[in-house]
Write a structure and sequence with these properties.
Layout (H helix, E strand, L loop, with lengths): L6 H16 L5 E4 L2 H8 L11 E4 L4 E6 L3 H4 L7 E5 L7 H11 L4 E4 L20 E4 L2 H5 L5 H24 L6 H20 L13 E7 L20 E8 L11 E4 L4 H20 L6 H15 L10 E3 L6 E5 L3 H7 L15 E4 L2 E3 L4 E3 L2 E5 L4 E3 L11 E2 L3
Parallel strand pairs: 1-5, 3-4, 5-6, 9-17
Antiparallel strand pairs: 1-2, 2-3, 7-8, 8-9, 10-11, 10-12, 12-15, 13-14, 15-16
Length: about 400
């Protein structure tokens, strides 16, 4: 029952980044992206208008943070030096980062961006105003394939997501409001998760709780990113659910199409087509398989069934520290890799450690139909991480 990334894993990641650094003429690797900083060091933060800048040399790790993060980052055993500025815009984040680099003896860097991202109104100078900059995406590529430890964290996320989804189904009744059903299911699953894990739980969340589940209903299901409508549940409703849990920053994805009461023949028909499409996609997964091939198989099925016009998105995406990560199971992925400098044929293929959501959907004018399961690629096949029943009967909520 793992609940955190092992310390040794961070050393492996830093060693890998230093290996990439050694292949360049740069003095340091630099990262502005919050997820990359977390991946390399374990320091997590909310990316705001206050930039955080990580620098890694062949023997040192340093970070520049706003003053309000100093006490949070100083205990991190993987960071050798902490620099700070008071705040933005009164402080000068990039100037402070440049001073950090100067203290490290750095004149040239390989960075994930030439400056901090312009989120929440941040407007600042480019890093290249202070040092020579070449860009790199080392960490993003490293994150494609998960280690065994990362896969286990995603599996643990799926376990608590499954419980949240079970509560969601149990609490769903005619006359209830989707928002309060979701809150109740998320609360009960989070309570169980915290009780079971005790001091092994890594406190990482704000507001939503460790585990969460919810759904969209009725005509909102016809929109892949529909919202929770302000309407109470009615007999005959189609529901598209979603459940997950956060385990040391890692996520899984479980979605089901459910029915409040017996579905109509038409609804059952589209459900079964969606389910078959998901099965086709899962059967196509495996190490060495072209990522684009999986989406092509589903698209061919949709065309054969005459419902290709009802599909609005690709089959799925990688998942881990990010809810959406590359590779994307998309018919264009192979061409995408060929068009990107530095990519090779292996980038177009699935490999052990990739963890994918498999979620082909069908969307009519009235309703949407989509399951999503989280599945890891192994050396010789696949490993299902989510496990809530997929069949029609198991996804019909009886109405008393």
């Amino acid at each position: 029952m793992p609940t955190r990334v092992p310390d040794a894993e961070f050393q492996d990641r830093l060693d890998a980044a230093r290996g990439r650094l050694a292949e360049t003429g740069a003095d340091a690797g630099v990262w502005f992206g919050a997820t990359s900083i977390e991946y390399l060091t374990g320091f997590d933060h909310v990316q705001t208008e206050r930039p955080v800048v990580l620098a890694v040399t062949d023997d040192r790790v340093a970070v520049t943070v706003p003053r309000l993060e100093v006490e949070r980052v100083e205990p991190n055993p993987r960071i050798d030096a902490v620099h700070h500025y008071f705040d933005y815009p009164g402080g000068k984040p990039l100037e402070a980062a440049a001073e950090m680099l100067s203290d490290l003896g750095v004149e040239s860097v390989a960075a994930d961006a030439d400056g901090a991202p312009g989120v929440m109104g941040y407007e600042g100078p480019k890093l290249s105003a202070f040092v020579d900059v070449e860009t790199q995406n080392w960490v993003q590529r490293m994150r494609w394939a998960k280690s065994d430890a990362e896969v286990e964290l995603i599996r643990e996320s799926a376990r608590w997501g499954n419980l949240a989804h079970r509560y969601l189904a149990d609490f769903t009744e005619v006359g209830e409001h989707p928002a309060t059903v979701s809150q109740r299911a998320s609360l009960e699953a989070s309570r169980a998760m915290l009780d079971a894990l005790g001091d092994q739980y890594v406190p990482r969340t704000r507001g939503d709780g460790p585990a969460h589940a919810g759904f969209i209903t009725g005509e909102q299901t016809a929109l892949p990113h529909g919202h929770t409508a302000n309407r109470r549940l009615q007999e005959g409703d189609v529901l598209v659910t979603g459940a997950s849990a956060e385990v040391d920053g890692y996520h899984s994805e479980l979605e089901r199409t459910m029915f409040l009461g017996e579905p109509t023949d038409e609804q059952a028909h589209y459900f079964e087509l969606m389910l078959e499409a998901q099965t086709i996609a899962i059967d196509a997964l495996g190490p060495g398989v072209e990522v684009s091939y999986v989406d092509e198989q589903v698209w061919d099925f949709f065309e054969e069934q005459g419902v290709a016009d009802l599909a609005q998105h690709h089959v799925g995406h990688n998942i881990g520290l990010g809810i959406h990560e590359p590779p994307y199971i998309d018919r264009g992925w192979t061409d995408h890799c060929e068009d990107r400098p530095g990519r090779d044929d292996a980038d177009a293929e699935m490999e052990p450690g990739h963890v994918y959501t498999i979620e082909p959907g069908i969307y009519t004018d009235e309703y949407g139909y989509r399951h999503s399961d989280t599945i890891a690629i192994t050396e010789d096949g696949v490993d299902w991480l989510t496990y809530f029943p997929r069949d029609l009967e198991s996804n019909v909520i009886s109405v008393e």
